[in-house]
Amino acid sequence: MQGNNNMFTSIVVVGASGDLAKKKVIPALFSLFHDRHIAKENSTVVGYARSKMTDDDLRGRIAENLVCRLKQEDQRSCGDIQTEFLNNLHYVSGSYDSAEDIAALDSKLKELESGHEKVRRLFYLAIPPSVFTDVAHLVHLHARAKQTVLVVEKPFGHDLASFEELNRTLQEDWKESEIYRIDHYLGKEVIQNLIVLRFANILFNNTWNRDFIKKVEISFNETIDVKGRGGYFDSYGIVRDVIQNHLIQILGLVAMERPLSMESGDIVAEKNKVLRSTTIDPSSVVVAQYEGYTADPTVEPDSKTPTFSRMTARINNERWAGVPFTLTAGKALDRTQTSITIHYRSIPGEPLFNTPCGNTCNRLSIIIQPDERIELRTMNKVPGMGFDARCSDLNMLYRDTYKGVHIPEAYERLILDVIEGDQRFFVQSGEARLSWVLFEQTLKEIDDGRFEVKTYPFGAKEGEI
Ligand SMILES: NC(=O)c1ccc[n+]([C@@H]2O[C@H](COP(=O)([O-])OP(=O)(O)OC[C@H]3O[C@@H](n4cnc5c(N)ncnc54)[C@H](OP(=O)(O)O)[C@@H]3O)[C@@H](O)[C@H]2O)c1
Question: Residue ranges of the Glucose-6-phosphate dehydrogenase C-terminal domain (predicted)?
Answer without folding.
Answer: 196-462
